[in-house]
Amino acid sequence: MKTLAGKTALVTGASRGIGRAAALALAQAGAQVIVHYGHRGHDAEVVVAQITAAGSRARAIQADLAESDAPHRLARQVRRIVGERLDILVANAGIAKAATLEETGVEDFDELFAINVRAPYFLIQQLLPIMCRGSNVALLSSLAARAAVGELSAYAATKGAIDILVRHFAADLGPRGIRVNAVAPGVVQTDMSTFTRSEKGRDMTLSLQAFKQLAEPEDIAAAITFLASDQARWTTGTTIRVDGGSKL
């Protein structure tokens, strides 16, 4: 069903992984999708081609979200494409770096916060003028925000920040009729996650989960699409765990 027909959506980090799956799912539901990418232009154009071949509209736009002014430039590009209305923002772009406390450097720490926290914060700020009653934002949290998993303390801190921001943004934007939520995946089979490529990693992942199978990006995209729909019209300020029952 085209539950998002007539809607416009921006998905950051949409050239691969969860972002790609979310862009395809939103398009399948009828939305026009802006496919943001940082460095994988060819991959983003492949996503655009898949969406247009299926009968929906899409455009690819580039911005390196590690740069301090990137959210502002990205927002300007979006406004030139969609005009004065953006219905759906999926702030998916992010990076992960595994390191112990002793191994974590200042540059890595700062880059994690720049892309995972600063970029979505200011992107929401800059897109507010074209978001209106009924618009919604989905941010990407993580299992790591609520449980110690591997050597991810700095990364986990960025996702903990997202969980806090969701509540503040939902409270601030609720009077405008804008919903803000987060989706918190567990371990997902993506290019960014090398953990599940080894037998040891797969076994460890399955030992954490109630469901004894590995998650695919489409499993997370389904939750994002739900949050974008009117079926989630009374859901805001929450982080939805989509992790197969991890660390129960």
Report on this structure:
By secondary structure, the protein is α/β, with parallel strands linked by helices. The chain has a single domain, classed as NAD(P)-binding Rossmann-like Domain (Rossmann fold), CATH 3.40.50.720. Helix content is 42%, strand content 14%. It contains seven helices and seven strands; from the N terminus they run E-H-E-H-E-H-E-H-E-H-E-H-H-E. Strand 2, helix 2 and strand 3 (58-62) form a beta-alpha-beta unit. The model has no long low-confidence stretch (mean pLDDT 93).
Keywords:
single chain, 248 residues, alpha/beta, Rossmann fold, seven-stranded parallel beta sheet, 7 strands, 14% strand, globular
Just name the CATH architecture. Answer: 3-Layer(aba) Sandwich
**Average pLDDT reading:** 93
| Strand ordering within the main sheet | 3-2-1-4-5-6-7
Looking at how many chains there are and whether they match, the oligomeric state comes to single chain
Give a quick account of the main beta sheet: strands, pairing sense, barrel closure.
7 strands, parallel
User: What is the percentage of strand-forming residues?
Assistant: 5-15%
Name the shape in a single word.
globular
Q: Any low-confidence stretches, pLDDT <50, length ≥5?
A: none
Number of strands: 7
Estimate the helix proportion, in percent.
40-55%
CATH domain fold name: Rossmann fold
The CATH superfamily label reads: NAD(P)-binding Rossmann-like Domain
In N-to-C order, the SSE pattern is EHEHEHEHEHEHHE
Q: What's the level 1 CATH class?
A: Alpha Beta
What count of domains describes the coordinates? 1
The helix-and-strand class reads alpha/beta
Computed over alpha carbons, the radius of gyration is 17 Å
Number of helices: 7
